[in-house]
UniProtKB/TrEMBL annotation:
One Pfam entry name: HATPase_c_4
Native species: Fusibacter paucivorans
Protein name: DNA binding domain-containing protein
Top-level taxon of origin: Bacteria
Residue ranges occupied by any Schlafen AlbA-2 domain in the UniProt entry: 10-118
InterPro entries referenced in this protein's UniProt entry, alphabetically: RecG_C_sf (IPR038475), Schlafen_AlbA_2_dom (IPR007421), Schlafen_AlbA_2_dom_sf (IPR038461), WH-like_DNA-bd_sf (IPR036388), WH_DNA-bd_sf (IPR036390)
Length: 447
């Protein structure tokens, strides 16, 4: 990373320290567990260059502290840089493969500009990744599985007559005579409680009046996918329009975009968490909520760019690819965007710590109505959280420092409060570094 990028402000990938302190080891753990990152010693939290007096001594202290306290030892580099005629020490930590990287038996992750301890689910995921495993590769608790739906799809798309044991091994659904969780998800009775999908259609743009609801459980994820498409066809208008000598299909919401979003939700969701995929059809949009944030190793910008794919469930992703449910890995987001290319309204992607939300607007509705209303009282907000929520009701996008100054809060306190409001899906973060601001989810950020 060049100097100019380091000076853009603190972010998920950059932390400033005025002086060397062992508290920075939490950030070393976070970077080693999830993604490369830089810690700059000699900059205060506002990005002002203060420099260091004895760079060599600081480098030695950092090296000794990491080697003694972080287990296993992460890979890192320490360099000195001259910025505005002052010396700073730059520690670059690389994401490691031997996760979790622990500090005093705790693993950390970055949340905005702070480093916080991971929860139980994230810790288990790091353990599996460190062993080159994932939830889908673990043995299924139920070994009495059948695959008629998978066989039906294989016949249609691959001319395969039957799903034999050899084929199940080839598809990596069976190993050493045992089915794994990926096999359970694809099986006809799908016993995993964490694979439920809720489908809801509302009368209008709010959640007050439900006109249709389906719960998809104990069926193959392949059948879930088909049922999601059927639910779309039931509630989304598709018309044929004659333009001159040609007949053109007009869809309220592009079917291809919806299919890609649903396939992504099924393939990439975190099945270790017992939280349902939720697909809601409103009068002006469809919202698809997939449990689990981004997989380890992919950044928000890489996800939104749509050119890098790290499937959380690689076995299932490969099978969806073979069955042509998805055309090519790492193209889903781009295909969603492409299918809105000729419309003024564009899809929105909300990336949270524990979920990813795709919002597909209807092409015949005003753009400002994309967002759902939220009721802060239903979330049991504490006094400070309620103050931030009320402050953001003005509709203005505010920086962390502006919120601190307006409410008289401390930096660390504000970071924690904003993090919780983001986890509750009440606010959204816009931008990075010094340009980072926060808005309520009820306001359209595209203007």
């Amino acid at each position: 990373m060049i100097i100019s990028e380091l000076l853009l402000g603190e972010s998920k990938y950059v932390e400033y320290k005025r002086d060397y302190t062992k508290t920075m080891l939490k950030t070393v753990s976070a970077f080693a567990n999830y993604h490369d990152g830089h810690i700059v010693v000699g900059l205060d939290d506002k990005g002002i260059v203060v420099g260091v007096i004895d760079a060599a001594d600081i480098r030695l202290s950092i090296e000794n502290a990491i080697n003694d306290a972080i287990k296993p030892r992460p890979y890192y580099e320490i360099n000195e840089m001259l910025i505005q005629d002052k010396t700073v020490v730059v520690l670059k930590v690389y994401k490691g493969d031997q996760t979790p990287y622990l500090l005093e038996n705790r693993a950390y992750k970055r949340m905005d500009t702070s480093s916080v301890q991971v929860d139980r689910h994230a810790y288990q995921e790091l353990i599996l990744l460190g062993r080159n495993l994932s939830f889908e590769t673990l043995p299924s608790e139920n070994q009495k599985l059948t695959f008629k739906k998978l066989e039906e799809k294989m016949v249609q798309k691959m001319d395969i007559i039957n799903v034999s044991d050899d084929l199940l091994v080839t598809l990596r659904l069976k190993s050493k005579g045992h089915f794994n969780n990926a096999a359970a998800l694809l099986s006809d009775a799908n016993p995993l409680k964490s694979s439920k999908i809720q489908l809801v259609a509302y009368e209008d743009e709010s959640v007050t009046r439900i006109k249709d609801r389906q719960n998809l459980e104990n069926v193959s994820v392949l059948e879930q996918y088909d049922d999601c498409i059927a639910f779309y066809r039931k509630h989304i208008n598709i018309a044929e329009v004659i333009k001159g000598p040609y007949r053109e299909t007009v869809e309220e919401i592009p079917l291809v975009a919806y299919r890609e979003a649903v396939a992504n939700a099924i393939v990439h969701r975190d099945y270790s968490r017992q939280v349902d995929i939720r697909i809601e059809i409103f009068g002006n949009r469809i919202e698809i909520v997939s449990p689990g944030g981004l997989p380890v190793g992919i950044s928000e910008s890489e996800y939104l760019d749509g050119r890098v794919s790290i499937p959380r469930n690689q076995i299932m992703a490969d099978i969806f690819l073979r069955l042509k449910i998805v055309e090519k890995l790492a193209t889903g987001i781009r295909r969603i965007k492409e299918n809105y290319r000729n419309y003024d309204k564009k899809p929105l992607f909300e990336i949270n710590e524990n979920s990813i939300v795709v919002i597909l607007p209807k092409t015949n509705q005003p753009e400002e109505k994309y967002y759902r209303p939220v009721d802060s009282e239903a979330y049991n907000l504490n006094e400070n959280e309620q103050m931030i929520y009320t402050l953001l009701k003005t509709g203005d996008a505010l920086s962390r420092s502006a919120i601190e100054n307006a409410l008289g809060l401390k930096k660390s306190q504000t970071i924690d409060l904003l993090g919780r409001l983001r986890e509750l899906n009440l606010i959204a973060q816009i931008g990075r570094g010094r340009a980072t601001t926060y808005v309520l989810k009820t306001y359209d950020r595209t203007k």
